[in-house]
From TrEMBL:
Domain TonB-dependent receptor plug: 85-198
Signal peptide: 1-27
Location of the TonB-dependent receptor-like beta-barrel domain: 455-878
Residue segments, region Disordered: 28-64
Compositionally biased tracts (Low complexity): 48-64
Organism for this UniProt entry: Massilia phyllostachyos
InterPro entries per UniProt: Beta-barrel_TonB, Beta-barrel_TonB_sf, Plug_dom, Plug_dom_sf, TonB-dep_rcpt-like, TonB_rcpt_bac
Name the UniProt record assigns to this protein: TonB-dependent receptor
């Protein structure tokens, strides 16, 4: 079925999904054609590709094109995007909201999954971060300026659950978005650092659209797995004054959701061990950490966008806008865990020597985690566009942004009393999650348990960015080169992490019978067969920190509880990274005829200088720390060129080449080490090595040469077919390396990034947009949009078996298919998204962790009662798909989680 779907779409590519129109649009052309944008005309400012009307210069308002009104309905949206693609030079894909507040996905990541070549990672029931053409080293912009996660460039938030649910992609509500632009081949004027591409999140500006407008949307949501309802609210007001030269806009959004996830999880994953079989030694591979886990979370998100725009003449425009979003989460995790390789008997293995079933005589652990998360992002900018002379135009901008996050983790472990030895019969090959039978202990009876570990960890991160830029365009009046662009940018990024961590392990444990005030019973979801229906856990609300255990001095008087800032983990994880970027560029724009064929495009070069200061605590084996600052300077020259060849009769060819560079993720540049609290001790003796991650501030940047070619055919009414080919030759690549290190008498395997050999990524992106204009009358209201991307890679990443691994996050095959019906007030869309398996990361054992293929099916029904009122019904994850990961071989199951179907009903008002 998978291959049939792929082969059936070898000539297709989608431009949109539920409620979207997705098209390749140029940096210069996208704004004038995108529905709902209402852009002013005039030349696009240098360095401000695909900007909103806040950057639009300076032609008289009367010259506005007819497409600058707000457009309802997918057909007008697709037509505008199709026309923009046809006239474009840069290689840029866009997603455009049908109308105000009508981008139906929950966040930016989910919306971007509709673009060919973009693949989305998922956290708990929500899209999180993305790869562009198989690469995660991308730039994220908001109205043209760079924004960051709280953990800096390449960050995915502070989530300790191994997901990226709280990163910047999940923070931006889709209601605030008018358009998303994905640049796959950047020009010299654009912000550098996108090894895969550049994502620009566009909002509306007050001089867009009609003279005065109010839009309101209210929705009720239902998450099937927890059986809980939620709500969404969105409101926008915009108005024009002073003869339409002054405009104000304010939009707000609020989203409250209760969600759940249940299934199999792990932290330590699989380990290799030897077994004697018939006198011979056989290498085996077994899961050493099986977790039957339930998650319940309440998530609240608030967003605000405000803007003011003043255009007193066709030679001057001054504007300012600000954006802020705040996410608060209260998450509870409960799980029973055990080590199947401990005291193993009756073992059964696969042909790959993967442990499938057996009996483990081992400790079974009851685990509770309460996590309180606050994450927010703010970004503001002031800009001026003006005509210096009749032939020279300028744009200057000052921007400031800050992102902050805190993750307060309370983890509480119970395990059997000494002398009580549970036995677990397990079969990981049965059912969705395996089958289990636990004997020798009653987990509902606290008298059989003791408390052994308490974490009271407060993870904190903040990233601030300040930028100044000036861009100029000189109209030459020459025959071939019609304009010259040049400019400069100065940017400072400061990223700080300073956790407070307490890892308290009372000697010998504390009998649970002495902790009744802090204990409760948890009723298991029943998703995993054979587990206890109820088991003893930490009671919700019984404590908020280790200091609340005043009646238990072994916890409250522990030195780590009294002074968490001085612990090894706190000092090792504290660092400050400051980067200063100074950029300058020059670019020529040309338009000419060669042998009767029109050829247009641009060529330029961007120079980038970076100065790095990385300050962290260098730890020695005894746990003592020395604050140390590392300094480094880098300079890169990044040429680029693109050509658009119009062959006539709707046939276009685009050619492009560029050198790109992306500096390492901020957290990888820290001058210290972060240690995980997972070392195993038995009677004071370390039996399991801990894990951690260390920084490498002297890393070289990623560098790549890329080539793009695109063949496009425009035909019929709104119809389009295209084939894009690309190749990236990455000369400098960063890989992960593991080393044995010791801190404060505890042994760890520490993962650090190092520069490895080169890598390559290549692929094809196919696209079809086909309204059924040619069909019989009964079918003419239908249409189809589809994308298929094939991406392949070779990297220097090797696992423990020396196998070559692909880029993390890269699926070779990705399919989007949308069937829509639109007639009068009724529109119906069904969207199908499938992505192939992909590498998640390397495990602590240096093996490849893979995420299995994932299918998402959603549907949207919209009915416009009149021009002002519309009703919407939406359904997501209709197949109740599960997220499955495995270690090396498909039968080496690590995780298998489900979060259920999601439904939403909404009413929209516009007047």
């Amino acid at each position: 079925m998978k291959h049939a779907t792929i082969y059936g779409l070898l000539l297709s590519s989608a431009l949109t999904a539920s409620g979207l129109a997705s098209q390749s649009v140029s940096a210069q052309e996208a704004q004038a054609s995108a529905p709902g944008q209402g852009e002013a005309t005039g030349p696009v400012a240098p360095g401000q590709a695909a900007q909103t009307s806040s950057q639009a210069a300076t032609e008289p308002p009367a010259a506005m094109p007819a497409e600058t009104v707000i457009v309802s309905g997918i057909r007008r949206s697709l037509e505008s995007a199709r026309n923009a693609k046809r006239n474009a030079s840069q290689i840029v894909d866009s997603i455009v909201a049908d109308d105000i507040g009508k981008l139906p996905d929950r966040n930016v990541a989910e919306s971007l999954s509709r673009v060919s070549g973009v693949q989305v990672d998922r956290g708990i029931a929500e899209g999180t971060s993305v790869s562009i053409r198989g690469l995660r080293q991308n730039v994220t912009l908001f109205n043209g300026r760079e924004i960051f996660d709280s953990t800096g460039r390449g960050g995915i938030g502070l989530d300790q659950n191994g997901t990226s649910t709280y990163g910047v992609m999940a923070l931006v509500p889709s209601d605030l978005i008018a358009r998303l632009d994905v640049t796959k081949l950047a020009g010299a004027e654009q912000v550098s650092g996108g090894l895969g591409g550049i994502i620009d999140i566009r909002t509306r500006m007050p001089l867009d659209g009609p003279e005065s407008q109010v839009a309101v949307r209210a929705a009720a949501t239902y998450d099937q797995l927890p059986g809980k309802t939620g709500s969404e609210l969105f409101g926008m007001w915009s108005g024009k004054f002073a003869n339409n030269t002054l405009g104000f806009l304010l939009s707000v959004s609020a989203d409250t959701r209760k969600l759940a996830q249940e299934g199999l999880d792990t932290f330590s994953g699989y380990r290799a061990y030897n077994q004697t079989v018939g006198g011979a030694t056989v290498a085996r591979f077994g899961n050493q950490d099986v977790r039957a886990q339930d998650i319940a979370e309440k998530r609240e998100k608030r967003g605000l966008s405000a803007a003011v725009q003043w255009r007193p003449s066709n030679r001057l425009e001054i504007s300012a806008d600000t954006f802020m979003s705040k996410l608060e989460s209260d998450r509870d995790r409960y799980w029973l865990s055990f080590n199947p390789t401990d005291g193993l008997s009756n073992a059964r293995y696969s042909s790959n020597n993967i442990l499938l079933s057996g009996r483990a005589t081992t400790a079974v652990l009851s685990n509770t985690e309460f996590a309180a998360v606050d994450s927010d992002v703010k970004s503001s900018a002031v800009r001026a566009r003006f005509a210096v002379t009749d032939s020279l135009r300028a744009n200057v901008e000052a921007s400031y942004g800050t992102s902050k996050a805190s993750f307060h983790q309370l983890y509480f472990r119970l395990q059997p009393l000494a002398g009580i030895q549970p036995v677990v019969d397990f079969d990981l090959s049965k059912g969705r999650f395996g089958e289990y039978a636990i004997g020798g202990i009653d987990f509902a009876n606290p008298a059989t348990l003791r408390h052994t570990i308490l974490f009271d960890n407060l993870y904190r991160a903040e990233t601030d960015t300040k930028a100044l830029r000036a861009d100029f365009t000189h109209s030459t009046g020459w025959d071939v080169v019609d304009s010259i662009e040049f400019g400069a940018r100065y940017n400072v990024i400061d990223s700080l992490q300073n956790p407070l961590r307490a890892d308290i392990r009372p000697s010998g444990g504390i009998p649970a019978s002495q902790m009744s005030a802090f204990l409760g019973q948890y009723a298991s979801s029943g998703a995993i067969a054979g587990l206890p229906a109820n088991y003893t856990v930490a009671a919700k609300g019984a404590f908020g920190s280790c200091a609340d255990f005043a009646s238990i001095p072994a916890i409250a008087r522990d030195p780590q509880c009294i002074d968490p800032a001085s612990t090894v983990n706190s000092r090792a994880g504290t660092f400050d990274i400051r980067e200063k970027f100074t950029d300058a560029y020059a670019k020529l724009n040309y338009d000419t005829d060669v042998g009767g064929v029109n050829v247009s495009g641009n060529a330029g070069v961007r120079f980038v200088q970076r100065k790095l200061e990385s300050t962290g605590n260098i730890m020695n084996a005894s746990g003592a720390s020395t604050p140390t600052t590392f300094l480094r300077d880098d300079t890169e020259a990044l040429p680029s060129a693109v050509a658009r060849v119009d062959l006539g009769d709707g046939n276009l060819v685009r050619l492009g080449a560029a050198r790109v560079a992306a500096f390492p993720n901020t957290a990888d540049l820290n001058n210290g080490v972060t240690l995980s609290n997972n070392a195993v001790f038995v009677n004071g003796v370390q039996t399991g090595v801990g894990s951690g991650s260390g920084g490498s501030p002297n890393l070289d940047p990623f560098k790549a040469n890329q080539v793009d070619v695109s063949f496009e055919k425009y035909f019929g009414k709104q119809a389009l077919a295209s084939l894009g080919l690309f190749n990236k030759n990455i000369s400098s690549f960063i890989v992960q390396q593991q080393s044995a290190e010791s801190y404060n008498g505890v042994n760890y395997f520490i993962n650090r990034k190092v520069n490895g050999q080169g890598a390559k990524v290549k692929g094809a992106e196919l696209l079809v947009q086909l309204p059924f204009y040619f069909a019989p009358e009964v079918l003419r209201d239908f249409g189809v949009m589809a994308t298929y991307s094939y991406i392949d890679s070779s990297t220097p990443i090797r696992d423990a078996e020396k196998r070559v691994l692909p880029f993390p996050g890269l699926s070779k095959n990705n399919v989007n298919l949308v069937l829509y019906y639109e007639s009068g007030p009724l529109s119906i869309r069904t969207a199908y998204n499938w992505r192939d398996e992909y590498l998640v990361s390397l495990s602590a054992a240096n093996t490849g962790i893979y995420s299995g293929s994932f299918t998402d099916v959603g549907a949207t029904v919209r009915y416009d009662i009149n021009k002002s009122v519309s009703l919407n019904l939406e359904a997501n994850n209709l197949l109740n798909s599960r997220q499955r990961t495995y270690d090396g071989a498909v039968e080496a199951l690590r995780t298998n989680a489900q979060y259920g179907r999601i439904f939403k009903a909404s009413v929209s008002l516009k007047f």
